[in-house]
Amino acid sequence: MEDKLKDLLAKIDESIKKGDFKSSLKFLNKAVREARYDGVKSAIVNELNRKRIEIYDRIFIPLPKIFSNETPWILGLIIGAIIFYYSFVTEHIVSIISFLIGAALILVVTHPLAHIFIGRLYGIKIIKAYLGGVAKFEPTVIADFLTYFSAGPKQRRNYHAAGSITTVLTSLIIFLIVLFLSYSFYIKILALIIFIAILLTDVFYSPKYSDWKRARKELKYKEIKVEK
């Protein structure tokens, strides 16, 4: 098993040198699957961490290390809430712009926050954050494989599901706040469109390509015992 992992790590290195990051990511995912057995060496798991960061640094936009904890995301949430508030105390186009910027910022930062908080609850350490995904401004955080493998299947499932659940609930809360507190018909329509769009994305996109897909897959893998 370790020989196969070392062969995959060598293929990752070769792909990176060629600039073929699509292949390197494919080999990395295969290596992660192969590493899911009791007794896997911590040195190999740490090497997987390093290779993933090396690949992600090339295909996504890396964020400063501080973004691997909740502080900057909470600050972003506060700023988003303040801007969102201005949609209720201003009028016309300023009100609409304040709503769109504030709501977008709130939705963007609550997703990684959910992963960070649930990860901490289960002892899953976040090691880096990126901007990437389908929308290039969409933030994503990655977990340390050592702590991730050591978590139970349901804990890993909940870690992935937390992002999608939080995004849908946040969009619903935004819509309800606007529905009952905003005087603007246009903002109410925009809030409804945002909620429906996010809900449909969660129902049709996420189970095939994103958080719900990862959450479902994790139930197939048991807790892994990593050896030193």
Keywords:
228 residues, 5 strands, 73% helix, 9 helices, two-stranded parallel ribbon, 3-stranded antiparallel β-sheet, mainly alpha
Approximate shape: elongated
Strand order of the largest sheet: 2-3-4
Radius of gyration: 20 Å
Strand-residue proportion: 5-15%
What oligomeric state is this? single chain
Number of domains: 2
Average pLDDT, rounded to a whole number, is: 90
Poorly predicted residue ranges: none
Tell me the number of helical segments per DSSP (H or I, 4 or more residues long).
Answer: 9
Query: Element order, helices and strands?
Result: HHEHEHHEEHHHHE
What percent of the residues sit in helical stretches (DSSP H or I)? over 70%
Structural classification: mainly alpha
Give a quick account of the main beta sheet: strands, pairing sense, barrel closure.
3 strands, antiparallel
What's the total count of β strands? 5
Distance between the termini: 16 Å
Describe the structure in brief.
The protein is mainly α and 228 residues long. The chain has helices at 2-18, 21-34, 42-59, 71-89, 92-121, 145-150, 153-181, 185-209, 211-218, and strands at residues 40-41, 61-62, 126-132, 138-143, 226-227. Strands 2-3-4 form a 3-stranded antiparallel beta sheet, with helices on both faces.
Describe the structure.
The longest helix has 30 residues. The strands form two sheets. The protein has a three-stranded antiparallel sheet, sandwiched between helices. It is elongated, with a radius of gyration of 20 Å. The mean pLDDT is 90. 32% of the residues are buried. It is 73% helix and 8% strand. It has two domains: 59 residues, no CATH class; 166 residues, no CATH class. With 228 residues, the protein is mainly α. The protein has nine helices and five strands, in the order H-H-E-H-E-H-H-E-E-H-H-H-H-E.
